[in-house]
Input
Amino acid sequence: MPVFNTTMKFIISIVFDLIDLTLGRIPGFGTVFDVLGGLLGIWLWSTPGALQFLEILDFTDQIDGFIPTLTIAGLISIIFDKD
Output
């Protein structure tokens, strides 16, 4: 992965997780936000990005915002990418 491309993807992941921490806690909206985040995660990080779909399991939308799942998926992708 080119460094600039990876950096931009990582910044997008961090910004998304910060928004998820705030707006993602609204019941109902948070679940839709988790689904869209899962699609964003797959687009940005491929298979590791699918971890974002695990946030759907928190139906209260109160706990999952405290776990920066998309950022973690990015770190996994960066660490284990051997290109």
The chain has a mean pLDDT of 90. Residues 41 and 49 are 4 Å apart (CA to CA).
